[in-house]
Design a protein that fits this description.
Layout: H1 13-46, H2 53-69, H3 74-97, H4 105-127, E1 143-146, E2 149-152, H5 153-175, H6 177-187, H7 189-194, H8 199-221, H9 231-246, H10 251-271, H11 276-290
Antiparallel strand pairs: 1-2
Helix pairs in contact: 1-5, 1-8, 1-9, 1-10, 2-3, 2-4, 2-8, 2-9, 3-8, 5-6, 9-10, 10-11
Amino acid sequence: MQIHRTGKHIMGGTLGIIVDISLNSLVLSGVFLIVAIGLNIIYGLSRIMNMGHGALYAVGAYTGYTLVATGLNYFAALIIAPIVVGAVGLLIERTIIAPMRKRSMVYTLILTYGLMFFLDGMIKYVWGNKPCFIDLPAFLKGTIPILGTQYPIFRLATLFFIAAIMGGLMLFLNKTKVGIILRASSTIPEMVSCLGINMNYVHMGAFVLGCIMAGVAGIIAGPLTTIDPLMGGEMLISSFVVIVIGGLGSLRGAVIAAILIGFVQTLAEFFITDLAMVIVYILMAVILAFMPRGLLGEGKFE
């Protein structure tokens, strides 16, 4: 994912450039984080690597575009689009994932790989190949002066959206009964099952929650970049880099890795545009060579 620069907001010399790059990096990191957290939730509880996650991110963006294009307020679309993606995730989990849960992870990996192509095809069938753009409310289209640079208001709002979403997710996982069950199921599923909790519902809830996170990221990223059928594949690769560097199944590691990758990719795109992703892959290879279980050593491998 590459955040487009709109308007002449790199002003004020070096300070303006530093502020611009820093804020763009945080926005990009936040989008990566939401998608990667969704992947990590699914893998951490069900040991399923959902290759269709990027396509669900794209479905969230296209759904948001359709809702806004029909006259719905963007903030209403911000709520409805993730619910739609969650419903799609529920259908996928019940029809494709659940029957294969007791089999090797390779089966679900192959199935979700096929699902990725199916969803990509459905996106092209429904919305076509033409790039789409989400129209924002007028008060979010302007810029605001920050330390020598005119920065887009929506990108600042995006940072608040992401912080609110992550704060809400942490409260849900740490303070609610359902969230505590989900966390416990990722480490001691046998004990949770012995307490009489139906693990099928736990796995289903984790998968749907992960898909909702992908939908949230899609509708948030829609106004930041071009919506097209390729956006899902690009985000899938970036989110995989984040969770591999952070450690498979590690939420704390994903936070650190998303910030790291966001800054590295933004800096690389600013100074050496053509080699941005190459730099990211080299960084991933170096980190894995010395820390195969991720930055915090919390990675889970099956």
